[in-house]
Specification:
- It is a single chain.
- With 245 residues, the protein is of the alpha+beta class.
- Helix content is 35%, strand content 25%.
- The strands form two sheets. Strands 4, 5, 6, 7, 8, 9, 10, 11 and 12 form a nine-stranded mixed β-sheet that branches. A three-stranded mixed β-sheet has the order 1-2-3.
- Helix 2 packs across helix 3, helix 4 crosses helix 7 and helix 5 crosses helix 6.
């Protein structure tokens, strides 16, 4: 079947129904026009994945392998997979990144709570594209364990690395500092050409998109701190009483 993901027509050559159902929201109405990429999983791919992820169905394992195959081809089309949560608010996209347990899901949840109209585009595995001027973050069927996301694309305005702290503060990062934190969050292809292209695009990302490290607790003040830096707008604290009404 042909799907439309990250503004690409992609033929997914799957054997099991798991992926067909999993990607249903991205199914293209046009099943006849040419595609840009084909993604599939070999039996060898599935067996290797089974060794790393025991106890899962063949369909689930195939699905993981298909997305990996797709993402490893993306650099040829100026795209890459970034491990991040993408949140959209007032037409702008913000990427929240952090190591496991840093509070990425918690902080994006606070944005959803306090900023009316905010939504999660992808909670874990978005695709990021570059057209030579603008970076765009795209929703994909692959959203992480919490399954937070939607079929949408949004211009990427800011990047925020999350760190837990007792007091809220935010620091703007230099491109070099951003690169050190970012590159571990990218899926880097094993072949030299695509790996080099991924790094080239990532270099443009750190130069063009402002990045910050947020030290935060679990409060509305944490939202105020990150929002004012990322969006460059004032945030008025709503307070517990107003939020409950």
């Amino acid at each position: 079947m042909i799907y439309e993901i990250a503004n690409l027509r992609i033929f997914i050559d799957n054997k099991f129904d798991f992926t067909t159902k999993f990607c249903q929201a991205y199914l293209s109405e046009d099943q006849l026009s040419p595609v840009r990429l084909t993604a599939r999983a070999t039996e060898e791919d599935i067996e290797k994945e089974r060794e790393a992820s025991q106890g899962f169905s063949d369909g689930y394992l195939e699905n993981i392998c298909i997305y990996r195959d797709l993402c490893l081809q993306l650099p040829t089309l100026n795209r890459f997979l970034m491990h991040a949560a993408i949140l959209e608010y007032e037409g702008e996209g913000y990427a929240f990144l952090g190591r496991s347990g840093a509070g990425k899901s918690t902080h994006t949840g606070l944005w959803l709570k306090y900023l009316k109209g905010a939504k999660i585009v992808n909670g874990d595995k978005p695709i990021v594209s570059f057209d030579g001027k603008t970076f765009t973050a795209h929703g994909t069927p692959w959203m992480g364990k919490e399954r937070r996301g939607c079929n949408a694309s949004v211009p990427l305005k800011g990047i925020c690395f999350i760190e837990q702290a007792k007091e809220n503060s935010i620091q703007k990062l230099t491109p070099a500092e951003t690169a050190m934190r970012l590159f571990s969050q990218l899926l880097l292809p094993t072949d030299e050409a695509n790996a080099a292209r991924t790094l080239e695009i990532a270099d443009q990302l750190v130069e063009l998109v402002p990045a910050y490290v947020l030290y935060c607790d679990i409060s509305e003040n944490a939202v105020k701190t990150s929002y004012e830096a990322l969006a460059n707008k004032n945030y008025i604290l709503k307070g517990k009483e107003e939020n409950e009404n």
